[in-house]
Amino acid sequence: MNYSTVIWDIDGTLINSMEGLVSSYRYTINKLNLENKTDKELASYIGPAPQTNFITHFNMDKKSAQAAADIFRDHYKTKDLFKAEVYDGVVDILEYLKCRQILQAIATNKREDYAIDLMKHFGLDKYFDTICGADNDNRLTKTDILQSCIKNLTKEKEEVVLIGDSIHDGKAAKETGIDFIGVTYGFGFKLKEDMKEYKPVLCAESVQDIINFFKKNLQT
Fold it and tell me: Which residue in 171, 192, 45 sits closest to 110, CA to CA?
C-alpha cells in the first residue's frame, strides 16, 4: 500500500474529548431547559455537528438547532475546548509518518477554527499540512470536508487513507473513493462488525494497531 497522504478525524481518533463535549452539551441543555440526558447518551452524540444532534435528539427545527449550536459552541470554545487528552501513541504515529514525508491532514466535523486551536494547544499542529473542519452553519457534510482536504493535498485518491471512529468517517471515505481505517477505541464504532460496510483496510482497537499497520505496509 503506497500511501502518500493520511487524513485523520479528531474526536475519538486523535484525542479523547468526551469530558469537554459532554460538559458543553450539559450546559446547553440546562440553559435552554431541554430534556435531560445521561452522560452516556451525550457521549454518543460526539461525531456529528451539534446542529444535527439538536435536530435528531431534541426534535428541534433548523433555526432552533442553529441557535442551540451557537450556545453550545460559544461555551465549548471558552470553557471546555481543552478538556481533552491525546490518546497514547498518537504522537508516535504522527512523528513516524512525518519522518517518512507522508502528508498528514485533519478532516473533522468540529468547527475549523476550534480544530486548529485544539491542535495548537496540544502541540500537534506541526504534524499537519492542512486542517479542514466544519463551518458554523453546518452547510458542509463530512464528505464535503474530506474532499476539500484531499483537494488541498493531492490528486491521487488511491494514495489517500482516512482514519476515523464513526460511520460518518466511513461513509465519507466510501463516497470519496478512498481507503478507510476504522478505530474502535473512540466514540463511534465499538466492534469490527460495525464498520464492515465501509470495507476498512484495518480495524484498529488501539493506536498501536495503526502504528503496526503503517510500519508493515508503508513503501517508503
Answer: 45
